[in-house]
Design brief:
Length: 188
């Protein structure tokens, strides 16, 4: 019955599209009760249209607007508290994540000293100066078997590049092919 009442109201208020209106009129022709209901609602709407329009009392409108304003303020305050709580929660989570990742980073690096002592020379000082060695730019040179067999222009480039290098340890590495020397660039 609720569906019929909604349909009747929509039909009387002309809220139906033309195809729905046509279908509803067919239903009214088949069902007398539906037709009676539509006609009684039409008469009711006509009587309601004849009633005078009255303005509500000022006290009533003021009371309604005060209630609506206070309700809106309560909802706004509640949403602000919720937003503040969420912002604080996100900040706490970010700080916790930062502390945890920093702790993991330092704990992982505390187990190793960060210096590779496997291939460092025994005497790493030249004239009492301890050179800084960037492990990514260290040239490890072992043996001299192919040193003199380069073509002349390439050999000149090799010689010039070796002149720019400073020997880090006292060992030359040229007597035996198993010894290694460690070369790094100098600031000269």
């Amino acid at each position: 019955m609720q569906n019929n009442e909604d349909g009747c109201i929509r039909y009387l208020m002309k809220e139906m599209d033309p195809s729905e209106e046509l279908e509803f009129e067919r239903e009214m022709m088949e069902d007398e009760n539906l037709l009676i209901e539509v006609e009684s609602l039409r008469k009711t709407f006509q009587h309601l249209g004849k009633l005078p329009v009255l303005d509500p009392p000022k006290t009533l409108t003021d009371k309604i607007s005060e209630t609506a304003t206070s309700t809106q303020k309560q909802r706004l305050d509640q949403s602000r508290r919720w937003a503040t709580l969420m912002a604080k929660s996100v900040a706490v989570a970010a700080v916790f994540l930062m502390i945890a990742s920093t702790g993991i980073y330092f704990y992982g690096n505390s187990n190793s000293t960060g210096i590779d002592t496997r291939n460092t020379p025994a005497s790493a000082s030249v004239s009492g100066v301890q050179p800084w060695v960037n492990r990514n730019n260290v040239i490890r040179f072992a043996g001299t078997a192919s040193q003199g067999t380069n073509p002349q222009p390439l050999q000149d480039d090799v010689d010039q590049s070796f002149k720019k290098l400073k020997l880090v340890n006292d060992e030359t590495g040229f007597e035996q092919t198993t010894k290694k020397i460690l070369l790094t660039s100098s600031s000269n």
